[in-house]
Design brief:
The protein is mainly α and 325 residues long. It has helices at 4-22, 24-28, 34-61, 68-84, 91-102, 106-132, 141-155, 157-163, 168-176, 184-204, 207-234, 241-258, 266-277, 282-312.
Length: 325
């Protein structure tokens, strides 16, 4: 990673993909209120710090406390590489960086990454669906209330599942290596799954860690919804913050389910369509989608690229045993 040929080449590719996908030149021609857009850009700092704080609590819970300053470049780079790789496969790079730079074995890092990605997208899907009731979809107060109750119950379902003994990683380890005696790749995979399972149980069985995760994830979602709200307002249109979260959350889930880098249009099409349903004129809905890319995706991507450069030029710690628990 420290070879300049590597980090310069990767940095150029990252920047090229970001600029190609976000098309900032199109956003500049829209004539939106720059003051609202400037606030949306600044709010990216809140998102990055919240990512780092959330990751810090999770890493500490599995016995590997790291500082906020150490985690900010890691989470920034992880966000960028996840957007650029199919189905967020770039998380493997974060696990490798944690192991090489901070001596964190793959078991605990995989558990933390699984919580941050899988639980977070689960929460996003449930809360965005609940927010869509009464905004995207016509619904009465009783249905709306029932939707939020169901979402709240679903949000804590992973915690409940862990407490009653439903542990998928451990179950998979049993399928791969039932007696725990295999060697080779299957044995290493089973060992990784068992380590991940143990650390997942540690995270999900701790009320303090779980509540911290939910609080910081909620802050991240509110901040990103506010960014969309500001983008729509910059074009002279108005939607509620709840409606903004419904549109953004559902669009993001659609992009994730597409398993394509940046959602490759899936998230954009869904977001524009939902904004139209919410009463935003079609032309403004398309413009808002471009502006979200320019004010959110591009700045976060630039932060991730800068983080990659900084980490690549730094020094690695001695590598820890890859499957140590």
């Amino acid at each position: 990673m420290r070879r300049w040929q590597v980090w310069v080449t990767v940095s150029v590719v990252l920047l090229g993909l970001l600029i190609w996908r976000t098309r900032p030149w199109d956003a500049l021609a829209l004539g939106a209120d720059w003051r609202a857009l400037a606030i949306a850009v600044v709010l990216n700092l809140v998102v990055i710090v919240a990512w780092a704080f959330r990751s810090q609590r999770l890493m500490a819970s599995v016995g590997h406390p790291l500082s906020i300053t150490a985690l900010i470049p890691l989470v920034s780079f992880a966000n960028t590489v996840n957007n650029l790789t199919p189905a967020s496969a770039g998380e493997a790079a974060r696990a490798l960086l944690l192991q090489r730079r901070h001596g964190v074995p793959y078991g605990p890092s995989t558990a933390v990454i699984a919580v941050e990605r899988l639980w977070a997208i689960w929460i996003m899907a449930l809360t965005a669906a609940a927010a869509a009731l009464g905004t995207v979809f016509a619904a009465g107060p009783i249905v709306i209330a029932a939707g939020w109750v169901a979402a709240a119950a679903g949000v804590i379902a992973p915690v409940i599942a862990t407490r009653v003994g439903l542990r998928p990683a451990g179950w998979l380890a049993g399928l791969v290596d039932p007696d725990g005696r295999r060697g080779g790749r299957r044995g290493r995979l089973a060992a990784l799954l068992r380590s991940t399972d143990a650390h997942l149980a540690t995270i999900l069985s701790s009320p303090g860690v779980a509540l911290s995760f939910l609080a910081t994830t909620g802050l991240i979602f509110v901040t990103t919804a506010t960014q969309l709200w500001l983008v729509v307002a910059s074009l002279g249109d108005s939607i509620s913050l709840v409606a903004a979260w419904a549109a953004l959350g559902l669009a993001t889930v659609a992009g994730v389910l597409s398993a394509l880098p940046f959602g490759l249009g899936a998230a954009d099409v869904v977001l524009a369509g939902l904004l139209v349903v919410l009463g935003v004129p079609a032309a403004d809905a398309g413009a808002a989608t471009l502006l979200v890319r320019a004010t959110v995706t591009l700045p976060l991507g630039l932060a991730g690229t800068a983080s990659w450069i900084a980490m690549s030029r730094g020094t690695d710690s001695a590598a820890a045993p890859p499957l140590e628990t």
